[in-house]
């Protein structure tokens, strides 16, 4: 949730570009997320000189990190459907020669088979109507023996612990269905998607992000949006929503708040073509 209480519209980012950029920056700057991005480089078995695709690159921060790591002999391509985010990524690149940003669709990548040594999609599949098709495209554009990595949260792992908050309301609010994303349980499904695409040497890397600050937890975990959606669906009354949010806010002020969300990165090796 952004500062004015609205969740970015991921189905049409360019209509809400400032909100999307601010949200992405908030998440990307979290210590756990930065550590996870650096870990992705290892899971991709990338090294200086590697050719890497970052699909759904957003504002480009991870692609720029990978560009530094692959060095002048390597190349990183970042794509995103949002023209506004690609413009922001190019501005942040500031003349970097190892990273190229362009608009593109993960469902229909404009690259030849086997173009890249490694490909990744981070916090992208949760928003797609066909995650399986996206993983297949990543495999197609990655050479046999190369690596792909997909990462997403599992919104059912959301935890909010505030001493005075009604536990039944807390359980309802933190249910995955109110996360306002197409695939709230995609985190737990990534392993099966990787297996279905025939990936080998699969590694699974969990990342848990912890919040004790109310404002940060509220923004990343969409408290306002969840409560609004639940009221619209007659799951919560206005008084219940207000009381719950105030109890969570008070826990934050008293340094008694604990919140978390867990995401999973699944990485694997692209198999050789099936010649049978």
Short description:
This protein has helices at about 15-30, 30-45, 60-70, 85-95, 130-140, 165-175, 185-195, 215-220, 225-230, 240-255; strands at about 50-55, 75-80, 100-105, 115-120, 140-160, 200-210, 260-270.
List the helices and strands and how they pair.
Blueprint: H1 17-28, H2 31-43, E1 51-55, H3 61-70, E2 75-80, H4 83-93, E3 99-103, E4 116-122, H5 131-140, E5 142-161, H6 167-173, H7 186-196, E6 200-211, H8 214-221, H9 223-232, H10 238-253, E7 258-269
Parallel strand pairs: 1-2, 1-4, 2-3, 4-5
Antiparallel strand pairs: 5-7, 6-7
Task: Describe what you observe in this structure.
It comes from Natronococcus jeotgali DSM 18795. This is Methyltransferase domain-containing protein. GO terms for molecular function: methyltransferase activity. The structure is a single chain. With 276 residues, the chain is of the alpha/beta class. The chain contains ten helices and seven strands. It has one domain: Rossmann fold, CATH 3.40.50. Helix content is 39%, strand content 24%. Strands 3-2-1-4-5-7-6 form a seven-stranded mixed β-sheet, with helices on both faces. α3 links the parallel β1 and β2. The radius of gyration is 19 Å and the shape is elongated. The N terminus is likely disordered.
């Amino acid at each position: 949730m952004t500062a004015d209480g609205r969740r970015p519209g991921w189905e049409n980012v360019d209509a809400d570009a400032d909100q999307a950029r601010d949200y992405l920056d908030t998440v990307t700057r979290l210590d756990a997320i930065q550590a996870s991005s650096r870990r992705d480089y290892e899971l991709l078995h990338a090294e200086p000189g590697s050719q890497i695709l970052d699909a759904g690159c957003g504002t480009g921060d991870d692609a720029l990190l990978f560009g530094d790591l692959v060095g002048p002999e390597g190349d990183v391509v970042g794509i995103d459907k949002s023209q506004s985010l690609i413009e922001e990524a190019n501005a942040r690149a500031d003349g970097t020669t190892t990273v190229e940003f362009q608009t593109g669709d993960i469902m229909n990548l404009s690259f030849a088979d086997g173009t890249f040594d490694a490909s990744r999609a981070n916090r992208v599949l949760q928003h797609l109507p066909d995650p399986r098709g996206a993983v297949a495209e990543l495999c197609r554009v990655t050479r046999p023996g190369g690596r792909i990595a997909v990462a997403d949260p599992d919104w059912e792992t959301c935890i909010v612990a505030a001493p005075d908050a009604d536990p039944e309301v807390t359980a309802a609010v933190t249910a995955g269905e109110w996360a306002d994303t197409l695939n709230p349980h995609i985190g737990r499904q990534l392993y099966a998607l990787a297996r279905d695409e025939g990936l080998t040497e699969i590694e699974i890397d969990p990342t848990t992000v912890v919040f004790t600050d109310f404002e940060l937890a509220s923004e990343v975990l969409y408290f306002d949006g969840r409560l609004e959606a639940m009221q619209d669906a007659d799951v919560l009354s206005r008084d219940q929503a207000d009381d719950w949010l105030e109890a969570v806010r008070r826990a934050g002020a008293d340094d008694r708040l604990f919140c978390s969300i867990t995401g999973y990165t699944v990485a694997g090796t692209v198999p050789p073509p099936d010649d049978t």
